[in-house]
Design brief:
The chain is built from 25 helices and ten strands. It is α+β, with helices and mostly antiparallel strands and 687 residues long. The chain has two domains: 363 residues, 3-Layer(aba) Sandwich (Collagenase (Catalytic Domain)); 197 residues, Orthogonal Bundle (Neutral endopeptidase, domain 2), CATH 1.10.1380.10. α2 packs across α3, α8 packs antiparallel against α14 and α19 packs across α22. The radius of gyration is 25 Å and the shape is globular. The protein starts with 12 loop residues before the first strand and ends in a 19-residue tail after the last helix.
Length: 687
């Protein structure tokens, strides 16, 4: 079953990342790891398209030849620098896991757990022999539900294991960031987002719904339904009613609207018809007297659905949700059906990803820090962490200067912004304290059981901290994760070890390219503290308004321009970027690039950077920026991202930030007639 980790608006804000080199020779290589010539000063000039000028299209000037020559691998929905880096990181983890699995380990040790967990998932022959047997107890427990109270109790017991209509998590309280609190979140949909259900006149969404019905029919047949097609339609109808109550993706980005503290008595009063106390008690949270309800109207509507929709429909829905979640860990017919819907129909992939890579993903969810501890010992030298910390400090200094120079912000608000910046916590590479997995039982050969126990183990850890002081040392990502994030409630920026690789960061690379790569990433994460969401939290992580009304109005006037810029981009025919949904990431890209450039110029100390391959340091900076966004994606995946992803498509991230950058126009001497020319007075400048 899936291990759920709910990310709220107070949680990690993810950033796309890139390409890894220097995989150990002994480690298995990912099937799609293409060989690269040694980059010159950190730039892969062989990927440049000589016929495209940076003044017309920075993204294609740097990546055009690669785009022409590279096919998306059959098992991928997209391919590019980020995916290559992730594949290589996965290959390192694979090597760790397979080495441990081949060697006898002490029973109960972390090494035994990692090896046995991984091996149980890659052994598909054993899964085929077991058939549906591993899930029989779960299905029987659903069949035994005879009335509404038992339905609620079952849902409560599955908290943290299945994606059901009411998701619960325990996270940092945005109004009291020194303490953990219980939060609700909407969930329970088999399709990616509510638009897939509600936009009935859209041909692409209609095609996805048809594929979902086919998949649900396979699951219904497996669950013993005599009329699988009719069962699939019943579940789709119930999920459509759930989707109708869901908030849209833009509303979910509002940290004020999604913070609604209710007492448990208010929960019963405002969402009547459901024994919420029973559900919370079964989830291990019965002792709490209040919680944050993130989408109040949704919880009220869900209570009505739980009370009024036929019990048999809810039981059917639960059976198919359980089968869907467990399918990758069951026999081949269900694994194939799962791939046909989740990957082929929704992302366009034509082959399943390698089984070892699925196992690595599951291992990361279940025992991520155990693997991470080994990963950093082998692949993250101390000098990389020191160099990274130096870069972060330079970016923070540049940001401080930038705030001082803002013409649109009053001294009063500037003082608050500087206070917030001074309180940033920086985490690089890996946590100082590793998670204890001694209570987690891993049984050789029990793939589904291991995943279920890992999910319960994680939920028990999370639930136990409700109402307790926040552990500020905890990480939201494992060291082997190719990503980075900013957490507004903790006012922290976090950079796992695996992201600190080429083309983001290379110890041997030209400073200009490193600043355009990892420097802009650092700037991006710093900027999330000052985007449309993060700027609503103060330096202590408290969700409160620290702006003057005039300053907030001036800020929103500028961000409205950015919304309009990105809303004009059309990645698919008739499908535009949602400028409001992607606003936070676009602010972070724009501001991060601005700050990284200032930090790069500061690093030169007044000197002129050397010319390399005929390009100035300033030009190489922007090449480094564009290089990290190299990506191709299938239309199905593009549709899913345009519907629900707060990040803009890669080509618009590369060009959309650069077109507003004075340094870009100066470096390349843009002029009227160039496709990326933008008059100075029209350029959007925020931080």
């Amino acid at each position: 079953m899936k291990i759920l980790r709910l990310t709220t608006l107070a949680g990690a804000v993810a950033l796309a990342a890139l390409h890894l080199t220097d995989v150990q020779a002994a480690a298995p290589q990912p099937e799609h790891a293409h060989a690269h010539a040694q980059p010159v000063a950190g730039l892969e000039f062989s990927s440049f398209e000589p016929q495209v000028r940076a003044q017309d299209d920075l993204f294609r000037a740097v990546n055009g030849r690669w785009l022409k020559q590279t096919a998306i691998p059959a098992d991928k929905a997209a391919w590019g620098a980020f995916m290559q880096l992730r594949d290589a990181s996965d290959a390192r983890v694979r090597h760790i896991a397979e080495t441990l699995a081949r060697t006898p380990q002490h029973s109960g040790s972390v090494e035994q757990k990692v090896g046995d967990f991984y091996q149980s998932i890659v052994n598909t022959a054993a899964l085929d022999r077991a058939g549906l047997q591993p899930l029989k107890a779960t299905l029987a427990s659903i069949d035994a539900i005879g009335e509404r109270q038992q339905l609620l109790a079952w849902i409560g017991r599955q908290t943290g294991q299945l994606d059901l209509p009411l998701l619960l998590t325990v996270d940092v309280d945005a109004k009291n960031p020194r303490q953990y609190t219980l939060m609700t979140w909407q969930g329970g949909l088999g399709l990616p987002e509510r638009d897939y259900y509600l936009k009935t006149d859209d041909a692409r969404f209609k095609q996805a719904r048809a594929a979902y019905v086919r998949y649900l029919s396979v699951l219904a047949r497996a669950s013993g339904e005599s009329n699988p097609g009719a069962a699939a339609q019943r579940v789709l109808a119930l999920e459509t009613r759930i989707a109708q109550a869901h908030w849209d993706v833009v509303a979910l980005r509002d940290p004020v609207k999604t913070y609604n503290r209710w007492s448990t008595a208010e929960l019963a009063d405002k969402a009547p018809g459901v024994d919420w106390q029973l559900l919370l008690t079964q989830a291990g949270l019965g002792q709490l007297d209040s919680l944050v309800v993130s989408q109040p109207s949704y919880v009220t509507a869900l209570a009505q659905l739980l009370a009024q929709e036929p019990l048999q429909d809810w039981k059917l829905y639960l059976r198919l949700r359980a089968l869907d979640s467990a399918a990758p860990l069951l026999h081949k017919p269900l694994r194939d059906a799962h791939f046909a819907f989740h990957d082929k129909a929704l992302t366009g992939a034509t082959q399943p990803r390698p089984r070892w890579q699925y196992a690595v993903g599951a291992l990361d969810s279940a025992l991520g820090e155990a693997v991470g501890q080994i990963y950093v010992q082998r692949h993250f030298p101390p000098e990389a962490k020191a160099r990274m910390l130096a870069l972060v400090n330079q970016l923070l200094a540049a940001y401080k200067e930038s705030i001082d120079g803002l013409s649109w912000m009053s001294p009063e608000t500037k003082a608050q912004a500087q206070d917030k910046l001074s309180k940033y916590m920086v985490k690089i590479g890996y946590p100082d304290t590793w998670r204890d997995y001694s209570a987690l039982q891993v049984v050789a050969g029990d793939a589904l059981g291991n995943v279920e126990r890992a999910a319960r183990f994680e939920w028990q850890r999370v639930a136990a901290r409700a109402g307790k002081p926040v552990d500020r040392s905890e990480w939201g990502m494992t060291p082997q994760t190719v990503n980075a994030y900013y957490n507004p409630a903790l006012n922290e920026i976090v950079f796992p070890a695996a992201i600190l690789q080429w083309p983001f960061f290379d110890m041997k690379a030209d400073d200009a390219v490193n600043y355009g790569g990892i420097g802009a990433v650092i700037g991006h994460e710093i900027s999330h503290g000052f985007d449309d969401q993060g700027s609503q939290y103060d330096g202590n992580g408290v969700l409160r308004n620290w702006w003057t009304d005039a300053d907030r109005k001036a800020f929103e006037a500028v961000t409205t321009q950015l919304v309009a810029q990105y809303a004009a981009y059309e990645p698919l025919p008739g499908k535009h970027v949602n400028g409001q949904l992607t606003l936070g990431e676009n602010i972070a890209d724009l501001s991060g690039l601005q700050i990284a450039y200032k930090a790069y110029l500061r690093s030169l100390g007044g000197k002129v950077a050397p010319v390399i391959q005929g390009y100035s340091g300033e030009q190489r900076f922007f090449f480094g920026w564009s290089q990290v966004w190299r990506e191709k994606e299938r239309d199905e995946r593009a549709l899913q991202r345009l519907t629900a992803d707060p990040h803009s498509p890669s080509q618009f991230r590369a060009n959309g930030a650069a077109v507003n950058h004075d340094g870009f126009h100066q470096a390349f001497g843009t002029k009227p007639g160039d496709k990326m020319f933008k008059p100075s007075q029209q350029r959007i400048r925020i931080w």
